[in-house]
């Protein structure tokens, strides 16, 4: 809703700004036009100057050359009336112009027209100088205003401009409110779609077509969301069911394989084969468990039982478990915990975090059959703990790094199985990040960054 108010505010301010700019432009154009009109009138012609250009010498009237050229360019004809109303001189006088006038005739055409010719007059020493334009070339009107109105012009003009500005702002506000009320349900509908809620907007009004489009899109998204949810639930249920159904026969196979492995009546080769069956069955059991866990983490169906966890203690326990499981002497596990991380606490699910670190160590062991040195490091920074598992083995190819750091989907890590997928999902569920990279001296490292517990105030 704040964005809608911002749109309304900007709309009104923009409209007011446009109105103000138009007023300024119109005022500037009016002033320019007035000045230019005055300059043209003063520059191109002046009735008084033309009248002064008509002189009398030895009883003969002579018009100066400049006045004659101006009359030819700007006007059509000119004449001089004596005091008794007779034409005593003329220049290009039309045939329909009388040669004798009475006082009333002169009073009639002095300010307006003479036989539809626009005329201008000026007092001459010998009478009245009359200057005529062509018919239809000029528009003349009489405007009279009280002197008080003219004196108040400097007050009225700014007041009118201010009134125009206020009216423009009010109109912009009115139209903006109408637009706001039209867009408000659309904005609410878009917010509901973002929250995956169904939308049903009214399709009446100016924005009816847009509302109909939003309704259609919402219906399609709701339908797709329902289909995806149904598919994901079916997949998770199927994986959980298969995991449960496999667990019982797999346990029987492992039990019999273990008995055969320990049976002294069997040959050494047969006992070794039974041992292979047992180990591979255990691996299948682990893979099925990983698949089930990855599916639940993918769709947020795995509950996170959060408790305060001391990471240093957890890492030491994991290392002891690997060393006590009969790990070959070709593998060396070293735990390095910085001084400021000895008492570091994180809030999370201890079993899931144990699973994540164990998967990383197991991954290093599995992909380096000839042995390697494994180093687990824990350090604490500002508000987070950095936990890394490194090995001196073969490392990752560039293609693996691209897939591990930028998977196309949250479960697409085929080259390294489900183990690393689960690691990334567990850390993400705890609000952390995972980074995979190779080491310059050889081998690889996986860095897990976890936020420290709010109750951890250790330095």
From TrEMBL:
GO molecular function, one term: kinase activity
InterPro entries noted in UniProt: HATPase_C_sf (IPR036890), HATPase_dom (IPR003594), His_kinase_dom (IPR005467), HisK_dim/P_dom (IPR003661), HisK_dim/P_sf (IPR036097), Sig_transdc_His_kin-like_C (IPR004358)
Enzyme class: transferase
Alphabetical list of CDD domains matching this protein: HATPase (cd00075), HisKA (cd00082)
TM annotation in the entry: 12-35, 155-180
Top-level taxon of the source organism: Bacteria
Domain Histidine kinase residue range list: 241-454
The enzyme's E.C. designation: 2.7.13.3
Coiled-coil stretches: none
Keyword field: Kinase, Membrane, Phosphoprotein, Transferase, Transmembrane, Transmembrane helix, Two-component regulatory system
Catalytic activity annotation: ATP + protein L-histidine = ADP + protein N-phospho-L-histidine
Protein name (record): histidine kinase
Organism ancestry: Bacteria, Bacillati, Bacillota, Clostridia, Eubacteriales
